[in-house]
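Holo prediction. Input below; ligand is magnesium ion.
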Amino acid sequence: MNMHQTAGETVAQTFMQSLYTYGVRHVFANGGTDFAPIIEGILQSQNSGAKLPEFVTVPHENVAVAMAQGYYKVSGEIAGVMVHVNVGTANTIAGLMNAARDNAPFLLAAGRTPVTEGGHAGSRNVAIHWAQENFDQAAIVREHVKWEYELREGQPVDAIVGRALDIAMSEPRGPVYLTLPREVLGNPALPAGATKRDRPLGNMPAAPSVEALEKAADMIATAENPLIIASGAARNHGSFHALGKIAADHAIAVGAGQQQSIATSNPMNLGPANPAMLKAADLIVVLDSAVPWIPRFGEPNPDAKLIHIGHDPMFARYPYRGFEMDLAVAGDPGLAMNMLNEMLAIKLASKKDVVEARRKRILEQRSALDDARRAAVEQGASMSPMTYAWVGHCVNQVKGAKDIVSDELGVGMGHLDMDEPGCFISTSSGALGMGLGQALGAKAAAPDRQVITCVGDGSYMFGVPSAAHFVGQAENLPTMTIIMNNSQWWAVRRATVGMYPEGLASKANSLPIVDLTPSPDYEKITEAFGGYGERVDDPEKLLPALERGYKKLQDGQQVTINAVVRTRA
Ligand SMILES: Cc1ncc(C[n+]2csc(CCOP(=O)(O)OP(=O)(O)O)c2C)c(N)n1
Ligand SMILES: [Mg+2]
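Structure of the complex:
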């Protein structure tokens, strides 16, 4: 092997071309010395006309992994992320943890520092090449990925890319990790492996057992007050509609959690299941929900029957999870809802009066909820600092029906009307700092839709705003960020007061490791990246400010509204 690579197709080029062949259109990338064959390969491919995914420069890995998740959540398509060896991998970890819990697949590729000290064009030539070698680089991510592998010399990179993407896209979906040593990437390309067959990536989702669903349908048909809890069930748009239909057809109340799983206007949608709803139910279907309720705050009636349905109703990747089950059914939640719906049509045909009496009760509950929602908005109309309800209501006024809201401790879903699936993408899986990047990924997936990011002031800073605004400007991916600025990490305050209700923290205004003061002019950060910003603390001025911002967003400018809010109710 020469000490300098000569022209000719390399493994790096095959790697990138096979990503394209398998349907990957974007790679969110943060480079380093391991990228030499990638960068050279991109230029070579431009000359040869070979098709590659678009490599998007993202100046922080946290933003890159969040972009891949937002991209998938909106398009249903898998994206790539490529980062620099062990250190770039380390910066992806919080995002990877979220992706694993959210079942958001992407291919995370990382270089590996050269392992040879000479003899190859890619051999070590800077001091960090020694420093960046790990005994086991994949150990950094192994707990949070479905599969990981290192490409070895002589192996068919196209087949390995196909396998990685297939595994990521099989249910339950999640991220996968592939390491690419620099020498291997710089090797001459091998003859192509098998060509890609014409089929979707991943396993076709498994249908639940008919026998098990018949049992479930019998249990639901004999229940008086069945309840479906569906926090994450509508990751797929089909299940959104299937859940809405079964609920409406058979008058079944739905407790919709932090994720969008059913249309806001569906009269059976009762918002997040509260302890009273849990207690009133004599049967609960836990539909693809990792945490259907928090036992300390209220549990179902001990006599209630509990049916769990989902791709993996045991949530085997959660170390401890103690929710009881009378029946556990593995399979696609949307398919399950469609099949159950048909079974219930037969089993409930003679019980129309029971179903209609139940519908009446649910509609009353729904109407009380709607009244409470209106009352909270009215109360907030004149309050400064502003309330979450007021900001949510105003965002609802400006947003279009198909706009996407990326929420991270932002306004939440309570005051937003969303009747289309894929309009609300939250990041509620533990690691903060995903909201901004997720919004950018959503915009890349749906350039014709407007994307609004609602984040807490803490979440905004976790999201590496300079890197996110950089991508917004450089890639022409304008989004509107609304910062819920309560000048603190309120969640940390709540945790302290929750554990010590009579403690000193409960009486103090200012708390250590909670306050984010002095609160900076967040709106000005966007301006450095060609954006438009406003700070608003007067509730009357919020709607006009959002309207001005939205107009600029439509004109292609990124926008930040720094909304000064009081702590959550
Ligand atoms: C990466 C990461 N670091 C720390 C935390 C712990 N944490 C949870 S909520 C929170 C505060 C978030 O602040 P903000 O976004 O302003 O929302 P608020 O609580 O004020 O509503 C923190 C620090 C976390 N979840 N993730
Ligand atoms: Mg805050």
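The longest strand covers residues 107-112. That is the main takeaway for now.
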